[in-house]
């Protein structure tokens, strides 16, 4: 980790204006938070925060990608989610009256991952001045809770190929790059990590990927996948 110059934000680079939590905030209101905003950069594999920590920081992802993971007592790892620039990380301890502990670890997925963070006291003091912003925060957290509930439901009711199809579509909608052949999804995940994200074993996910490929729906290209027929993946995700 390396610390950047604190609060070194030009107006056009104010990350607060590009996050879901602050989408209704005016530039003038966002400026009030800048003196309390800190920045740091991380290389691939470095931990931004760790499961079990009791800090009171909320993080904003400015550049790069970050994965949230949980580790079991026997050191098995579960990949929970992947986050892109403009998204908020680690907000749960900030709004937990007991202040933690953190329920997951955040790990940088690429070199030069940039984050900014706010301490809870600074955020809450600002919310006292702008209480309507709390409504936007509640909406974002409600959407995350909805997504978590959907993920749990998928694990219970969907088979692995359906979950894989849905995961590929989600990654495609967030990170996909149009190419001549279709939609290229550079997910940067190992086979094991992709299986963790789907919630299955590597062998089972690889079997499903091979089936999708044999059907002509997708093609694998290193740590990328090219989606040829998104409609077929949508249909498979609904079975």
UniProtKB/TrEMBL annotation:
<feature type="domain" description="Cyclic nucleotide-binding">
    <location>
        <begin position="21"/>
        <end position="123"/>
    </location>
</feature>
<keyword id="KW-0238">DNA-binding</keyword>
<dbReference type="GO" id="GO:0003677">
    <property type="term" value="F:DNA binding"/>
</dbReference>
<keyword id="KW-0804">Transcription</keyword>
<feature type="domain" description="HTH crp-type">
    <location>
        <begin position="158"/>
        <end position="231"/>
    </location>
</feature>
<dbReference type="GO" id="GO:0003700">
    <property type="term" value="F:DNA-binding transcription factor activity"/>
</dbReference>
<dbReference type="InterPro" id="IPR012318">
    <property type="entry name" value="HTH_CRP"/>
</dbReference>
<dbReference type="Pfam" id="PF13545">
    <property type="entry name" value="HTH_Crp_2"/>
</dbReference>
<dbReference type="InterPro" id="IPR036390">
    <property type="entry name" value="WH_DNA-bd_sf"/>
</dbReference>
<protein>
    <submittedName>
        <fullName>Crp/Fnr family transcriptional regulator</fullName>
    </submittedName>
</protein>
<dbReference type="InterPro" id="IPR000595">
    <property type="entry name" value="cNMP-bd_dom"/>
</dbReference>
<dbReference type="InterPro" id="IPR050397">
    <property type="entry name" value="Env_Response_Regulators"/>
</dbReference>
<dbReference type="InterPro" id="IPR036388">
    <property type="entry name" value="WH-like_DNA-bd_sf"/>
</dbReference>
<keyword id="KW-0805">Transcription regulation</keyword>
<dbReference type="InterPro" id="IPR018490">
    <property type="entry name" value="cNMP-bd_dom_sf"/>
</dbReference>
<dbReference type="GO" id="GO:0005829">
    <property type="term" value="C:cytosol"/>
</dbReference>
<dbReference type="InterPro" id="IPR014710">
    <property type="entry name" value="RmlC-like_jellyroll"/>
</dbReference>
<dbReference type="Pfam" id="PF00027">
    <property type="entry name" value="cNMP_binding"/>
</dbReference>
